[in-house]
From TrEMBL:
Region entry Disordered, spans: 146-168
Organism taxonomic ancestry: Bacteria, Pseudomonadati, Pseudomonadota, Alphaproteobacteria, Acetobacterales
Protein name: Amidase
Transmembrane annotation, as ranges: none
PANTHER family found in the cross-reference section: AMIDASE AMID-RELATED (PTHR11895:SF176), TRANSAMIDASE (PTHR11895)
Species of the source: Sediminicoccus rosea
Residues of the Amidase domain: 43-461
Pfam family, one: Amidase
Length: 473
């Protein structure tokens, strides 16, 4: 069946057409292997979109078109010789400007790093180059990833935000400029812009992808992951990073195999109604209810809190997820943010950044221990329930992208790019999560979020492939 489209009465309508699917790299690669298409031609198609739309969307902080053409030509030669480096060889990729890319500016929309040029590749970029990835440029981020919004606009309605700190990566893929971009998430920065831009976002388990070379925010919750035009593209990108750069912090890396997991119907999926449930508009709530009905009709059992005391208790615990996650993030972010402020002066950081880091600087070790204990309780509850289900389901955002997301530089500016209430839980849990573009609300994409236990990435992606297939008509 097609994606579910619904609207709120009298709401402004965006320009998202779910019938017009993004061209993914998996499909283009079939042409490379058959000799009917080339990586250079694919790159040029994306560059034509950039030329036509970048002035409005403003997804990129830096473009290296000449370097990308050289890399695409090299990939074209390898396909002609029958020797591609990997299933990702020749794929144009954009990198979020929190990750180092050798020879490119790394400014993070901040005066602190103005003029800085990266001298080394981040671990994931090094891995993607080794796989034949065509690194096209760096995407826009908020100031130091946590402050004032970047100039990026939603590709389906320029009056709306493209999301949180991975908004540039999300918009680049959503607009059809590249089939894959790399984002990162500490609170909600990858899944939410995937929802807003109608793409597939994959936040693998914490530690499954090497985060070395990323500007850290909160090491115990920092993740990187692909934002892609298809689920297959997302999996292959994550796999190549893990296979070539390994996991991080003693983690062995992504589970599964190089081939995208085959679709598998789940027996039981647990529905989570978190604090974000109260934020939903009528159309988003109804659309998600219809998604659940489709899943049940196809044979997947939906477990709800009404019939499960443990699930009800988990939902109660998750009511505090935003606060707990923010406490952990801002305490751990005291370095480097406090160090930047000490080195460059308060005036070098915007008001939105200063307001957020002030929260962490005011916390005590006892405050942090309390937040960690609360996170541990949530992880334990999820682990107990997760052993009896094939995944958890909720929304990837509390509706379509809000309008006027480019807020002024003021305290709380980061909240103007959308709520993180549906996202905080799985950033804390550290398990895999995906945003699947299954809903259309008021002419804008809204993602459905599928979540799993840590290091069950391949199993969760198999369920995601089954769900995605149900709505591929």
């Amino acid at each position: 069946m097609p994606r579910i489209a619904i609207r709120n009465a009298d709401a402004p309508q965006g320009g998202y057409d779910p019938a017009s699917r993004l061209a993914d790299f998996e499909g283009a690669r079939a042409g490379f292997l058959a000799g009917t298409d080339t990586p250079r031609a694919l790159l040029e198609r994306g560059l034509a979109v950039i030329a036509a739309r970048e002035g409005e969307v403003q997804a990129f902080a830096h473009l290296d078109i000449a370097g990308a053409r050289v890399a695409a030509d090299a990939a074209t030669g390898r396909y002609r010789a029958g020797r591609p480096l990997s299933a990702l060889d020749g794929c144009p990729i954009a990198i979020k400007d929190t990750l180092a890319v050798r020879g490119m500016p790394g400014e993070m929309n901040s005066a602190v790093f103005r003029g800085h040029v990266d001298t080394l590749d981040a671990a994931c970029v090094m891995a993607l180059r080794a796989a034949g990835g065509v690194i096209l440029g760096k995407t826009q981020v908020p100031e130091l990833t946590i402050g004032r919004a970047p100039p990026t606009r939603n590709p389906f309605d320029a009056t709306r935000t493209a999301g949180a700190s991975s908004s540039g990566s999300g918009a680049a893929v959503g607009a059809g400029m590249v089939p894959v971009a790399i984002g990162n998430q500490t609170g909600g920065s990858l899944i939410r812009p995937s929802s807003f831009n109608g793409i597939y976002g994959f936040k693998p388990s914490w530690g499954a992808l090497n985060v070395a070379g990323m500007h850290a925010i909160a090491p115990s919750q920092d993740h990187i992951g692909p934002m892609a035009a298809s689920l297959a593209d997302a999996w292959r990108t994550a796999w190549e990073i893990s296979a070539r750069a390994g996991g991080h912090n003693g983690h062995p890396g992504l589970t599964g195999t190089a081939e995208p997991p085959r679709a598998l119907r789940p027996r039981r999926i647990a529905l989570l109604r978190t604090r974000g449930w109260a934020e939903l508009d009528d159309a988003t709530r109804e659309g998600f209810t219809r998604v659940l009905a489709v899943l049940e009709q196809a044979g997947a059992g939906i477990v709800e809190a009404g019939g499960d005391g443990a699930l009800a208790e988990l939902e109660r615990l998750l009511l505090e997820a935003d606060r707990i996650s923010n406490d952990i993030i801002m305490y751990e972010a005291r370095w480097p943010y406090g160090a930047w402020m000490a080195a460059h002066g308060e005036g070098a950081l915007g008001e939105a950044v200063r307001a957020r880091i002030a929260h962490g600087l005011a916390m005590t070790p006892a405050d942090y221990r309390r937040a960690l204990a609360e996170r541990d309780a949530i992880r334990a509850a999820i682990g107990a329930i997760g052993a009896g289900v094939d995944g958890f389901i909720t929304l990837a955002s509390s509706g379509p992208a809000p309008q006027d997301g480019a807020a002024a530089d003021q305290a709380g500016a980061h909240m103007k790019t959308g709520s993180r209430s549906f996202l905080s839980p799985w950033s804390m849990v550290g398990g895999p999560s995906l945003s699947l573009p299954l809903l259309v609300v008021d002419g804008m994409p809204v993602g459905v979020q599928l979540m799993g236990l840590p290091d069950r990435d391949a199993a969760l992606c198999a369920v995601a492939a089954w769900m995605d297939g149900l709505f591929s008509g």
